[in-house]
Amino acid sequence: xxxxxxxxxxxxxxxxxxxxxxxxxxxxxxxxxxxxxxxxxxxxxxxxxxxxxxxxxxxxxxxxxxxxxxxxxxxxxxxxxxxxxxxxxxxxxxxxxxxxxxxxxxxxxxxxxxxxxxxxxxxxxxxxxxxxxxxxxxxxxxxxxxxxxxxxxxxxxxxxxxxxxxxxxxxxxxxxxxxxxxxxxxxxxxxxxxxxxxxxxxxxxxxxxxxxxxxxxxxxxxxxxxxxxxxxxxxxxxxxxxxxxxxxxxxxxxxxxxxxxxxxxxxxxxxxxxxxxxxxxxxxxxxxxxxxxxxxxxxxxxxxxxxxxxxxxxxxxxxxxxxxxxxxxxxxxxx
Length: 335
Ligand code: 5AD
Ligand code: SF4
Prior knowledge:
Shape: globular
Helix content: 40-55%
Number of helices: 13
Bound molecules: 5'-deoxyadenosine, iron/sulfur cluster
Number of strands: 9
Order of helices and strands: HHEEHEHEHEHHEHEHHHEHHE
Low-confidence stretches: none
Strand order of the largest sheet: 2-3-4-5-6-7
């Protein structure tokens, strides 16, 4: 059961009669290896400016219909402070690839947030070794960089001017520097095959990721993929569940894209292998502008109310809200 071949994964992904079995098995593996605790991570979307042009993303630089914003250093810190007051133990800093924030500014922000006694996760796109090292030295604990797809041809089509090998290099550097490594993929990209999804899952295992985020594609009307179909919810859930079955003790979020595509998507994910939720704590007026896909921010405006709602959802399915930092269980960074 631990070492599915690519063919076995493809067969499982294709076979609808296996879907419930996969979900239940993943739920059992989750319970056995990471328990019932669910870790909450406060997400701050600090800039929607991006130099990249990913075909699926509403924030791509070619989309001129976006009102762009950047939070100041002080605004980012005050967001983090609010999250800490609400009881969050991890702050996730996410932004488009925006060179406005220099290495030094980011290091300053990271070390100030670390003073709040929280774990810090970065999701800033591709950075040089030197930058990644400086962020780590400033106290960052984890780094998220989805590979998006391991199908090199598809990767090239979806990411004009970007280089697959550089993304791999970044992930290797993140690992080498001692971060917890987060990656993941999109499910439902045009012409994506079962074969390539199976490769994605095997890739997660091969690079020994600590965190995996998987979500369905949700097409954005102001992107070249506007006439394509959304990703299939059950297929994304299956990719996520098989990832749990293979990687066992890693952290897996119930992604916002799953909740956006299907009502209760988040709960279904938590019952099929996921053990993390990442509530968005960005100020409401700002958050509206971080539209990587439509209807992303249907959640409650009041942060306390939103957190309480999530906590009661967690309890309603017999799970518990973690008050730990939420490192990978038994991982080298756990404390
Ligand atoms: N639908 C679903 N997910 C998307 N992302 C970007 N655009 C979309 C979309 N249209 C995901 C990418 C990225 C993450 C932050 O959001 O996988 O890594
Ligand atoms: Fe930029 Fe990320 Fe959107 Fe690509 S997915 S355009 S890198 S914000």
